[in-house]
Amino acid sequence: MTKLVVGLGNPGSKYHETRHNVGFMAIDLIAKKLGLTFSEERTFKAEVASTFLNGEKVYFVKPTTFMNLSGLAVRALLAYYNIPMEDFIVIYDDLDMEVGKLRFRQKGSAGGHNGIKSIIAETGTQEFDRIKIGIGRPQKGMTVVNHV
According to the lineage, what is the superkingdom (predicted)? Predict the structure, then answer.
């Protein structure tokens, strides 16, 4: 079996430590704990690290497309490695959850998240696992764009 774990974010130093990149941060932390390094895979429009865990190949991925096009990388990887949707999980930010809260969800709508919208559009399904990380709502007078 092969597993695909994708963290959502935006590439580039401008976005490196923004709230919207919490999916990238989570994937980076996992990779660091496992002693993995990422390599750029232009074919997949992503940075990829891999290892074997409990006898299963696991790919950790950070799409190098911008957030709104994350589905392109996900679709390419799922197809190339013939990974079924039940072996795919995505980690991303959620404005509607308190900062630092985690929530596991097995399926559902995009909930206004453009990265998830892209994945749903490219894969044709909402039936995939997600780990949402709360980033909270912006303070009064601050725009969502400036918050994330």
Answer: Bacteria
DSSP letter at 124? Answer: S
Distances (CA, A) of 15 to 8, 33, 43, 148: 12, 23, 23, 9
Spot the catalytic one: 16, 20, 113, 147: 20
Instruction: Report pLDDT digits (tens) over 55-81.
Output: 999 999 999 999 999 999 999 999 999
Q: Show the domains of the chain with their CATH numbers.
A: 2-147 (3.40.50.1470)
Q: How far apart are CA 86 and CA 1, in angstroms?
A: 11
- The yes-or-no answer on residue 20 being catalytic is yes
pTM summary value = 0.91
